[in-house]
Design goal:
heterotetramer; B: mainly alpha; two-stranded antiparallel sheet; two-stranded antiparallel ribbon; 11 helices; 4 strands; 3% strand; D: mainly alpha; Helix Hairpins; 78% helix; 2% strand
Chain lengths: 165, 345, 689, 100
């Protein structure tokens, strides 16, 4: 019962945030609504028993990436997004198609509902140490590769953003 | 323990902790004013009440009754959101911070802590990282160049130092092997060489401690890293346009954060509430909390002491210090610790 | 015992290679030296091989030398192998011998021509292919030679390729031969399909197991198709049309290729495949009829031609007709016999005609000749020998061979009265037009005025010839100074004349007191035919015949044969007299006769309009069909239009698709999203279903 | 005890929102955020499945996704800054020339 309540509350929060992200015409507002989505998702993770991921979600996504976004937006002092001529095609087909698609997927997912599989809080807390074991034993190579990726990304960011004089 | 009792106890604990925290915040302000006064060779506030002990109350009343000016050119919702966000987040952190061991009252056994989360440390970090938004939004929403510059600096500074902060904790985590703050403290029980307490700071985390402290000062925008609110350059930085209660919120948030930092440092490096426990049962119940408070007080004192002593960094020095000193130090510390632990086992 | 037969064809090939590749820089002497050396050596080696051949034990014949495997696919295998037996030996001797003589002759005749080295390298190349054709031990290798001589003949007919007529004549010969080769190829395919091999020995063994086909069957089909090929190569009806035009080539070429050797390849092939032919009476009958009709038909055209080389060309055709007639009545050895003698005297005739033309500086029209008897006596005498030989004068080679054919046409079970009649009449015509040529050329006064081209235009070869003589390097005279040919040309003529006179004595029939060694010599080659003879029937094979001559029917046979000999002598004499009457005694008669005959004459003069007929019946339809129907109809309207529309469609589609490339990021993203959505939808569909 | 499909549907909806934003928004930064939104939706699906099958691999994948997202954000924002310096605009429709 409590699960359903929490799930639906935060699901609604997430969807609302996502929609707001689309509706808002100022990047800052969009960014904040995205932060909201992420927070809501973090809670969903908690509901799914993924404590570590939830925390990391907050720290990395909300705390680092989105802050970076906000920072850039403030740095570039980005103004409102001017509404260019709306693409009629998008309005006529895009949105209905999108809705239709969502409905289709939902229907399909409901239909293959594995009724027996329920998710209980604490059924599986992604314990950090186990995740670490996975990360450093089976997924060691991808882990190292991503570390290299990060390094390259850092250097690339530095090179790109440096104001060459 | 059934749900209703759980809820009741939790509610009671939350109220209690909040009250204590706010009180601590208020009196930290007083403490700062008096100490800085002394450092600067003058009396601090001494009029209100004995030794000016009621000064915080007066300040609170003043803030409440001041006119609340909202400039016309601000982005109103965010302008309002920013201080609330800062304060609420600052206060939230206390939820996972344990101040003592377990207590039994009529068979109800509960930790001296609002809730014990498995990943408490990460929660704290997450909340502090979110706290950036408060400052950023404040600066941006109030739509004035001082604010904007201040918040820009704040963002950059906090992002940069958050890295060092996080990395400095790795060593501790390796030693204790858990994210739970309570677990970390319990990992520091006992002594070695007979008398030295088994605290992380004594177990080779001295470098980490130093890094953590610097980073934490920066996180809380305190001297010598208080560029976001550098009066001499930016009037008042990100909260230039704020007045009355909204300003008070930022103010309280800052001091709450100081407290949080102190608590965290205590828990991570100074063995939390651990300390000599003796005497009758009530004394045994109080002493840990007392030790804890003592250590936190030490950190608050340090804060103020540093503020009274050190000059402010220049911005480029700030960044350089973060990326070129603290960051490598933290990494080196993590690596060394990992190696030592690996070799020991 | 290894005879290294490969040397025989390879020597001329080497000569051809050297001359063809480097001859341009060589002096004419060197070129001719190389050419003569190669052919001469080849001839000499052939003589050596002949000597060795007679020491071969009978069971080792045919002597087969296997050099390499050419094709091996599954069970089917074609080797590079040479086969030497009586038949190929005869052919070898004829080809190399006559070929060598003609090479010698050419040295003198072509002395003043351009492209000297070209000529000799072609000639040697021809020798090579001809020898391959003769020596091959399987049909495919034979076909190589077959095509090769076709190529050489094409090159040599078009030797004066600057002359349009020469070039077109070459093309005509080539194309006509392709028609024949088509038939030959199909015959080969049938052989492969049904016998799984192309080697003579294997094929004939299998064939000899089969009975004589009562009604047309597989063997008949193969035989008839082979005959088509032979008709093409040997200029038989209906494919003879290329040979007269082939006279465009230099005279030695006409002598070597279009009289002595190449055109007899068809006869050789038929004789070589005698077992197959023998087992299908229909095919044999067809061969005989074609031969007979060709003989008389060509002879009749020969009547009216005034170009000396053309007369000889038509006579060649008709003589070839004789050979086929012989093969058609299963008298293969007689055919080969005539082939040999014909090679001698027809080469002689062509060469001496060439000598005449040479003397007249390129004149070919007999009406502008005459009275040359005194002017070029040597040429006159050698040519006389040739004329007498071909006309069937008793005692000369042509007499024996033709006489045998006539007799077989009557006596052979495959023969018939009608065939015999035609043959005899052809003999008469032959002697008539040959003597006509003789008289017109050598007797009466010289009508040496330059030819006013009322007739068919003067041909490229002689024209060049005349030009060549006109130039200072020549003998320093124009066409007026009539002069005898140099000895290098006369000597081969003399040798050939001798051969034409005595060549017949290898095959004197029993009736005339000989032993017909030639028959018996060739007999083993035709043994398969002999085996096929149902018992009690009259033997077709001369060898069998010789065996059975001991029988009771012997005497009246002899009488009959003698009688026929007399008849043929009579007709030959008749022809001589008629020619004498018309072209010496009463020279006004021919004109009158022409008027009397009128239309018929003109028809004959124009070779029965056969070329025109072919042109109207085959060539024009093809041209029209391909231009109207295939080109304008199918190519333009169907293929081109398809392609154009395809291109246009592609253009249109891409023009439509181009709009997707708007440079608008979000439209791209939209397409991507759409595609992804489609894929996901499909997967969902598959999953839910 | 929330059944798995609910999480999946939520994830699908978020993802669709991301796609829509990617298509409709003009501000390059917003578009970038939409990409992050999609990534988050995927993460949710990962976690849900991981819990569903009782395996932690999903968490690890989420971890990797986050790392990649961080790198992407760093580089992408740097690019955006560079672009803004030259173009003085964040509107993707205006950024349609490879060279200025």
């Amino acid at each position: 019962m409590l699960h359903y309540a929490l799930f639906f509350i935060f699901a609604a929060l997430a969807v609302g945030g996502a929609l707001n992200l689309l509706i808002q015409r100022h990047p800052i507002s969009s960014a904040l609504s995205l932060v909201v989505v992420m927070g809501a998702l973090a809670v969903e993770y908690l509901l799914l028993g993924a404590e570590f991921v939830a925390a990391v979600q907050v720290i990395v996504y909300a705390g680092a990436i989105m802050v970076l976004f906000v920072f850039v937006i403030m740095l570039l002092n980005a103004g409102e997004e001017e509404r260019a001529g709306r693409s009629r095609v998008a309005l006529l087909f895009g949105l209905p198609g999108l809705v239709l698609f969502g409905v289709l997927i939902s229907w399909a997912l409901i239909r293959i509902n594995p009724a027996s599989n329920r998710v209980a809080i604490g059924a599986l807390h992604g314990p950090p140490d186990q995740i670490a074991r996975l990360l450093f034993q089976p997924f060691l190579l991808p882990f190292e590769v991503t570390s290299v990726l990060i390094l390259i990304a850092i250097m690339g960011a530095v090179v790109l953003a440096r104001r060459e004089r | 323990m059934d749900t209703t009792a759980f809820v009741l106890v939790s509610a009671a604990k939350t109220a209690l902790f909040l009250a204590i925290l706010l009180g601590v915040v208020a009196y930290t302000v007083l403490l700062e004013r008096k100490l800085v006064g002394r450092i600067q060779n003058r009396w601090g506030p001494s009029r209100v009440g004995p030794f000016g002990l009621l000064q915080p109350l007066a300040d609170g009343l003043k803030f409440i009754f001041k006119e609340d000016v909202t400039p016309p050119y601000v982005n109103r919702p965010l302008y309002l959101l920013a201080p609330l966000l800062s304060l609420s987040l600052a206060l939230t952190t206390i939820a996972v911070i344990p101040v003592g061991g377990w207590i039994d009252i009529k068979g109800i056994r509960t930790p001296v802590q609002i809730t014990d989360v498995g990943v408490g440390l990460l929660v704290v970090l997450g909340i502090t990282s979110i706290a950036v938004y408060g400052i950023a939004l404040a600066g941006w929403a109030s739509n004035s160049k001082y604010s904007l510059l201040g918040s820009l600096r704040a963002c950059a500074q906090m992002i940069s130092y958050e890295v060092a902060l996080g990395l400095s904790l790795i060593g501790v985590l390796i030693l204790s092997g858990t994210f739970s703050l309570r677990g970390i403290v319990e990992a520091q029980q006992g002594t070695f060489l007979g008398f030295i307490p088994n605290w992380n700071i004594f177990r080779g985390q001295i470098v980490a401690f130093f890094v953590y402290l610097c980073a934490a000062y920066a996180e809380t925008n305190r001297v010598p890293f208080d560029l976001p609110e550098a009066e001499t350059e930016l009037v008042a930085g990100y909260h230039t346009e704020y007045s009355a209660m909204k300003f008070a919120m930022f103010f309280m948030a800052e001091y709450a954060n100081m407290v949080t930092v102190g608590c965290l440092a205590t828990l991570l490096f100074l063995g939390g509430w651990l300390g000599p426990v003796f005497g009758p049962w009530w004394l045994q119940a109080i002493l840990p909390v007392f030790w804890f408070g003592l250590k936190v007080f030490f950190f608050l004192f340090l804060y103020i002491w540093v503020r009274g002593t050190l000059p402010r960094f220049r911005y480029d020095q700030l960044m350089a210090f973060s990326w070129k000193v603290l960051f490598p130090l933290a990494i080196a510390n993590a690596v060394v610790t990992a190696l030592v632990v690996a070799l020991k086992s | 015992m290894n005879l290294n037969l490969w040397l025989i064809p390879v020597l001329p090939l080497v000569g051809a290679a050297i001359n063809g590749l480097f001859g341009r820089r060589f002096s004419n002497k060197l070129v001719s030296a190389i050419a003569l050396a190669s052919t001469g050596l080849s001839f000499a080696y052939t003589l050596f091989v002949t000597a060795r051949f007679f020491s071969l034990p009978a069971d080792r014949i045919p002597h087969i030398e296997h050099y390499a495997t050419w094709i091996r696919t599954g069970a089917f295998e074609v080797p590079f192998a040479a086969q030497l037996d009586q038949l190929s030996l005869v052919m070898l001797l004829v080809v190399t011998g006559v070929g060598f003589l003609i090479h010698v002759y050419s040295v003198g005749y072509m002395a003043h021509e351009g492209g000297y080295y070209r000529f000799f390298s072609y000639l040697n190349l021809f020798m090579f292919f001809m020898l391959v054709l003769v020596l091959a031990n399987n049909y495919l290798l034979m076909f190589v030679g077959w095509e090769g001589v076709g190529l050489a003949s094409y090159l040599l007919i078009g030797f004066y390729f600057t002359k349009d007529s020469a070039a077109s004549a070459g093309k005509k010969a080539f194309i006509t031969n392709r028609v024949g080769d088509f038939g030959f190829l199909i015959a080969l395919f049938l052989l492969v399909k049904h016998f799984g091999t192309l080697e003579y020995g294997r094929v004939f063994e299998q064939v000899s197991g089969m009975p004589v086909e009562a009604s047309a069957g597989l063997l008949t089909a193969i035989a008839i198709l082979m005959m088509v090929g032979a008709a093409g190569k040997s200029a038989q009806i209906p494919l003879y049309v290329w040979l007269p035009d082939a006279m465009e080539g230099p005279t030695p070429v006409s002598a070597l290729i279009h009289a002595a050797t190449m055109v007899t390849a068809g006869v050789y092939m038929v004789a070589r495949s005698n077992p197959i032919f023998f087992r299908s009476p229909e095919a044999l009958a067809l061969v005989a009829i074609i031969g007979a009709i060709t003989a008389i038909f060509a002879a009749s055209i020969g009547f009216t031609q005034n170009d000396i080389k053309r007369v000889l060309a038509y006579s060649t055709i008709s003589q070839l007709g004789y050979m086929f007639l012989a093969c058609g009545v299963a008298a293969f050895s007689a055919g080969i016999f005539h082939l040999m003698t014909h090679a001698f005297f027809k080469a002689l005739l062509f060469l001496s005609a060439g000598s005449v033309i040479h003397a007249l500086g390129g004149e070919q029209d007999m009406r502008n000749m005459g009275g040359l008897r005194t002017k070029i006596p040597r040429t006159f005498w050698v040519m006389t020998a040739g004329v007498l030989a071909i006309a069937g004068t008793p005692g000369l080679s042509g007499f024996f061979s033709k006489d045998q054919i006539l007799w077989k046409a009557w006596a052979s079970p495959h023969g018939g009265k009608l065939l015999w009649l035609i043959a005899v009449f052809t003999a008469f015509m032959t002697s008539f037009y040959m003597f006509r040529l003789w008289f017109m050329t050598f007797f009466n006064e010289h009508r040496g005025a330059k030819s006013d081209k009322r007739e068919e235009p003067v041909h490229g070869g002689p024209a060049d010839h005349r030009a060549a003589h006109a130039n200072p390097h020549g003998h320093g005279h124009g066409s007026h100074g009539i002069h005898e040919s140099p000895w290098v040309m006369i000597a081969p003529l003399v040798i050939l004349a001798v051969l034409s006179v005595v060549g017949g004595y290898v095959g004197v029939p029993h009736a005339l007191g000989g032993h017909n060694q030639f028959d018996q010599f060739l007999a083993p080659v035709f043994k398969f035919s002999a085996e096929a003879m149902p018992a009690g029937e009259h033997p077709a094979s001369p060898a069998e015949g010789a065996a059975q001559h001991a029988a009771a029917a012997h005497e009246d046979e002899i009488l009959m044969e003698r009688l026929f000999t007399g008849i043929s002598i009579g007709v030959a004499a008749l022809g001589f007299l008629l020619a004498w009457l018309l072209y010496v005694k009463r020279r006004d008669l021919p004109g009158r006769i022409t008027e009397a005959l009128g239309g018929l004459y003109t028809a004959v003069r124009n070779k029965y309009y056969v070329d025109e007929l072919y042109n109207a019946a085959i060539i024009q339809p093809i041209i029209q069909g391909s231009s109207r129907w295939l080109w304008r109809g199918i190519d333009t309207n169907v293929i081109d239009r398809t392609i154009d529309n395809g291109a246009g469609g592609a253009q249109g589609i891409s023009d439509a698709v181009r709009r997707m490339q708007s440079g608008n990021i979000r439209s791209y993203a939209g397409w991507v999203a759409l595609g992804a959505a489609c894929i996901v939808a499909y997967m969902i569909w598959m999953g839910v279903k | 005890m929330v059944p798995l499909p609910y999480y999946l549907i939520l994830s699908a909806i978020l993802f669709a929102c991301g796609v829509a934003g990617f298509l409709f928004k003009r501000n390059i930064i917003t578009i970038f955020m939409c990409i992050e939104l999609m990534l988050n939706a995927v993460n949710l699906a990962f976690i849900a499945f991981s819990t569903h099958w009782g395996q932690l691999s999903g968490h690890v994948f989420v971890f990797f996704v986050m790392v990649v997202a961080a790198a992407e954000a760093a580089v992408g924002l740097a690019i955006i800054i560079a672009v803004f310096r030259t173009r003085e605009t964040l509107n993707v429709d205006r950024v349609n020339l490879l060279k200025l």
